[in-house]
Write a structure and sequence with these properties.
Number of strands: 0
Helix content: 55-70%
Largest sheet: none
Order of helices and strands: HHHHHHHHHHHHHH
Distance between the termini: 13 Å
């Protein structure tokens, strides 16, 4: 493993799911939490605030589709407010209520059913994910980048933000080459770290100093 890659994983190799307190498993609650996190991270707001808001929603009982649906609109707004996710709190509360409803009605609250419906095809999965309100191409990238930790059929998931981070560190931007820099099980951590580099030039310079 390159010195730069080692340093990167050591400094920033935490997935956004881990930061939000999600123990990612191929199970309904964990996958729904990841969908909520992808929704929150999609907005033009700092990742720290999105992660804090996700933690507050889960603490309030919104960690499953059923639980999120049981929260009132105001409960969700209040949880988002406690996470300082205030600029988009009202519209996001509505979106998350709709997301819970779709997850329940279409997938019985279990996004493993989405993987089956998509025939474990990343392109089809992207289309199905975008049927959730607030999940566009950015949200798909966030969800799939993290979900590749537990869904091997998504690997390697290397999107434009990951490539931007790789470019900043002088690493290859070809998906296969870049993915080959780490063991498969480290891909989600590696891509999350590269996204941080894409957004933080100081971090890039620090890692390059290795």
């Amino acid at each position: 493993m390159d010195a730069v890659v080692k340093k990167l994983l050591h400094e920033s190799g935490r997935t956004f799911a881990e930061e939000a307190g999600i123990t990612l498993k191929d199970q309904p609650a964990a996958l729904f939490k990841l969908l909520v996190l992808a929704n929150l991270l999609s907005a033009r707001i700092s990742s720290d605030i999105a992660v804090a808001a996700a933690r507050e929603l889960f603490e309030a009982g919104g960690g499953t589709a059923r639980g999120m649906g049981r929260l009132s609109w105001q409960d969700r707004v209040d949880a988002l407010g406690r996470g300082h996710y205030v600029r988009y709190d009202e519209s996001t509360s509505s979106r998350l209520g709709d997301t819970a409803e779709i997850a329940q009605d279409r997938y019985q609250g279990d996004l493993r059913r989405l993987a089956i419906e998509a025939e474990r095809d990343p392109g089809k999965a992207a289309g199905l994910l975008q049927e959730f309100p607030g999940i566009g191409p950015t949200g798909v990238d966030i969800f799939c980048r993290e979900a590749q930790a537990i869904w091997p059929w998504l690997r390697p998931y290397i999107d434009d933000q990951v490539k931007k981070g790789a470019e900043r560190l002088g690493l290859p931007t070809d998906a296969g080459e870049l993915a080959g820099k780490v063991p498969e099980k480290e891909l989600a951590r590696f891509t999350a770290a590269l996204v941080r580099v894409a957004h933080d030039k100081k971090l890039a310079d620090h890692v390059k100093a290795a």
